[in-house]
Amino acid sequence: MKPGNDVATNRPRPDFRLWLAGDDESSPFGYGRWRLLQTIEREGSLRGAAGCLGISYRKAWGDLKATERALGVKLIESRRGGPAGGDTRLTPVGRAWLRAYEVFRSRVARAVSRAFDASFRDLIA
Questions:
Q1: Are 63 and 50 in contact (CB under 8 A)?
Q2: Sign of the torsion formed by the C-alpha atoms of 61, 63, 69 and 74
Q3: Quick one: which of 85, 84, 35 has its CA closest to 64?
Q4: Within 1-125, where are the H helices?
Q5: Residue 49 is part of which domain span?
Q6: Does any domain span residue 13?
Q7: Distance (Å, whole) CA 18 – CA 35
Q8: Is the four-CA dihedral 33, 38, 44, 45 of positive or negative sign?
Q9: Is residue 14 part of a domain?
């Protein structure tokens, strides 16, 4: 604790939400859509990804379609069921968006951390 401070607290740290905004105030891509793409890639299924994230299949599907429309690209390819079941995979462009957002978010996180440290170093032990 800093001198003169008699209240014990958790050490504050920066946190942020990061999304890409459209000219019309929409947000076609951000952390939630990034997590959805990550989980689709891992699970190989939109239904499985939605379940892992605790959202409905309908919401996941609607979010992806809205993002594809806003960006003008196809992010996923789906193959309907059958004996082996269906699957959902990221398109090459979908994988590129996933990786680009990961890099962008990582760079922003480092910049936010540096700014936080420079701004609060004298206030936080």
A1: no
A2: negative
A3: 35
A4: 31-43, 46-53, 57-71, 92-120
A5: 21-120
A6: no
A7: 12
A8: negative
A9: no
pLDDT in tens, 36-78: 999 999 999 999 999 999 999 999 999 999 999 989 999 999 8
In the 8-state DSSP scheme, what is residue 118? H
Domain count, the chain: 1
Q: Is residue 1, in this structure, part of any structural domain at all?
A: no
Closest by Cα among 73, 70, 117 to 95: 73
Residues facing 89 on adjacent strands: 77
Q: What is the CATH number of the domain that holds 69?
A: 1.10.10.10
| Average pLDDT along the chain | 88
26 by Cβ neighbours in 10 Å (0-12 / 13-18 / 19+) ranks as: middle
List beta partners, residue 19.
Answer: 30
Q: Is residue 11 part of a domain?
A: no
Single-letter amino acid, residue 40: I
The predicted model scores a pTM of: 0.80
Residues 6+ apart with CB under 8 A from 17: 30, 31
The token duo for 43 is 């699970």
